[in-house]
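Subject: Sanity check before I submit

Could someone independently write out the C-alpha cells for this chain? I want to compare against mine line by line before I put it in a report. The sequence has 376 residues.
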Amino acid sequence: MQLLKLVESKIRVGVPLPWNVRNQDCTLLLARGHVIRSDAQLEALLERGMFVDVEEFKAVEALEAPPAKPLESLYTRWTLSIDALETALPRLGDTSDGLDAIYALTDEILELAEKDADIGLFMAIRQDQAKHLRYGYSHAVYTALLSILMARQLGWTAARTRLLTLAALTMNASIAELQGQMAAQDYPALDRQRAQIRAHPALSVAILEKAGVTDTEWLTTVMQHHEQTDGTGYPQAISSVSDAAQVLRMADLFMARISPRQLRQPLSIQDAARLMFRDDKGGPFSMAIIKVLGIYPPGDFVQMASGEMGVVMRRGSEARTPLVAAVTDSQGKGVTTTLHRDTSQAAYAITGPASDRSLLARVPPERLYGYAVHAG
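---
Independent answer below. Compare away.
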C-alpha cells in the first residue's frame, strides 16, 4: 500500500471523510465516513500524521466532478503552496508526480512574487507561530520567496532565478519533517539530530537524483547551500562556493533567524539584518537582502513619532520609509479603523520597532490589503 500524507486543505471539519485515514504504519485511524468535529481535533490529528491509500484517494477524486474553481486570495495561495510542498517532498524519488509537483509549485511561487511581493513578505514575516510542525515546509516556501527577490535585485535572468527557486524548495528534502520536530521540541537538539542536519545537503541531492534531476547547477546549489567561502561550512568544508548557493544560504539563514521556535523567540528583522551584514562584511548578497526588505519590511510592527503603532504594509522608496497601517491611537490603544501613514512625513516617521506585539494577532492581512484576489 502506497500512502499519501494528508494536508489541512484536503480535510473539512464537519464533513464525512471520503476515505479511510491511516497512520504512517498503515494502521487505520479513522474509517471512511467519520466526521472530524472541531479545528482543534483536526490540528491534533495533522500533528500526529494522517495518511490515505493513494489508490483510494485517486478513486475518490475521479468520482467527484470538480466544481468551478473560485478565485483564491493571495494569502490562501501562499498557504496552499505550503500544503503543496508538504505533499510533494515525501513523494520525490518515488514517483514522477513528486517532481512534477515541485515544478508546478516553483511556477506558482514565482507568479505570487510577481503579483504582489509585499503580501508575500507579509506572510513570511508574520508566520503562524502555533504550527511549528509545519516549519520545514513553510520555511522552504518563504526562503524561496526571499531568494527570488534577492536574485531579481542582483539582476539574475529568469531562468537562473527559477533554478534558484527549485533549489530553495528542495534543499531540505531529507529533513523537512525533522525541522518541524526540532522547531516544536522544548529541549536542545540531540546529537543524532545534529548529525542528520550535517548530512542533509548530500542526502537531499541523493533524493533529487533518484527523482531524475540531472541539472548540475540545481544539484550543486543544494549540495553547497551550507558551505561558506572561508571553508567553515558543511558537508564538504569547501571554500569555492557558487553564487547561487551563497544566495540560498543567506536567505535560508535569514528566514531561520526570524522564525519562532518553541525554545526561543525569533530575532527582529533589524537584528537579523545586522548579523547578516556583519557576517557577509557588507558584501553584495547581504546588501541584496537589505535592499529587498528595507529596514522595516511588510509584516513588521513599528512605533511612529505620532505615538501610534502600526503594521508595515508596503515597502517605500527608501529603506526607512515604508507605508504603515496604524492600528493604535497616539496613546497605544487599539482602534477599529485602519489609517495609512506615509512614514516619509516627519509626523509619522518610524522611531523603531514596537515593543508590545500582542496587537499583531488581531490584525489579519485582509484588514490591510483587502481580499487580494487576482485573476489569472
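---
OP: Matches mine. For the report I'm noting this point. The longest strand covers residues 334-342.
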